[in-house]
Amino acid sequence: MDADSGFIMDFVVDKCGDVFQGISSLVDVAGGLGGATQVIAKAFPHVEGSVLDLSHVVAYAPTGTEVKYIAGDMFESIPPANAVFLKWVMHDWGDAECIKILKNCKKAIPSKEKGGKVIILDIMVGAGSLSDQKHMETQVLFDLFIMFINGAERDEQEWKNIILKAGFSDYKIILF
Ligand SMILES: C[S@@+](CC[C@H](N)C(=O)[O-])C[C@H]1O[C@@H](n2cnc3c(N)ncnc32)[C@H](O)[C@@H]1O
Predict the structure, then answer these.
(1) O-methyltransferase C-terminal domain location, by residue (predicted)?
(2) Over the stretch 12-25, which tens digit does the pLDDT of each residue have?
(3) Atom 12 of ligand 1 has which residue's CA nearest to it?
(4) Residue 85 counted as domain residue
(5) Per the domain annotation, does 136 fall within a domain?
(6) What CATH code is carried by the domain that includes residue 116?
(7) Residues 115-152: pLDDT tens digits?
């Protein structure tokens, strides 16, 4: 997963960098060893980045970095921040668990008017062109992975369902 961050996050910063503008703090929930947060903190030095993951993962966190590592359980609580970031996390879980995670995200951030946001980086089934072979290959690869871990890939209606059930009133999709 850390290798994936090294690959995809430069692309995210380049194509969707606006999402991180105006944020002063961000917690990368279930962020593993923090590869994604390291890239965000480097690209946006005004963002104070932290990573939440289980204690046995945080035990292997790199040292000598500005990024703060926090051991904890996202189903219990999420440390407060301007923004919460979830990369390849939600597709590991069923709807009930995702709603619980999103409710905890909502508690961790300020209101939308005060700049609070939850940023989810994940697959959206049905997005993009089915005639694009690379796009299809990527979706199939993720389908195989999800079958292995018993997770779920979601289309827009399924994303909307969990987002609204967690108490959020709207959302914005950025495709790339
Ligand atoms: C698929 S990996 C994603 C890691 C990271 N977001 C990335 O993209 O590199 C899922 C992560 O969820 C973490 N995780 C699983 N259950 C968790 C929990 N209850 N609280 C916090 N983290 C959890 C795992 O330890 C793992 O690092």
Answers:
(1) 4-169
(2) 999 889 999 999 99
(3) 30
(4) yes
(5) no
(6) 3.40.50.150
(7) 999 999 998 888 776 677 877 787 777 777 777 666 78
Ligand 1 atom with minimal separation from the 86 CA: 6
Choose between 128 and 158: higher pLDDT: 158
- How far are the Cα atoms of 56, 151, 166 from residue 100, in angstroms, in the given order? 22, 15, 7
Q: Between the CA of residue 67 and those of 85, 151, 156, what are the distances in Å?
A: 14, 29, 32
Strand-strand pairing, 68-71 and 25-29: unpaired
CA–centroid distance, 133 to ligand 1, in Å, is: 29
Q: Per the domain annotation, does 89 fall within a domain?
A: yes
Q: Whose CA is nearest to atom 23 of ligand 1?
A: 30
Q: Which domain holds residue 106?
A: 2-124+155-165
Least trusted range by pLDDT, from 60-69, 145-154, 160-169: 145-154
Helix and strand tally (H, E) in the chain? 6, 7
Q: What is the pLDDT of residue 149?
A: 67
Number of domains in the chain: 1
pLDDT confidence of residue 133:
81
Q: Give residue 53 CA to ligand 1 midpoint distance, Å.
A: 6
131 C-alpha to ligand 1 centroid (Å): 32
Active site residues: 91
In short, whether 88's Cβ falls inside 6 Å of ligand 1 is yes
Smallest CA-to-CA distance from 25 within 103, 121, 108 is with: 108
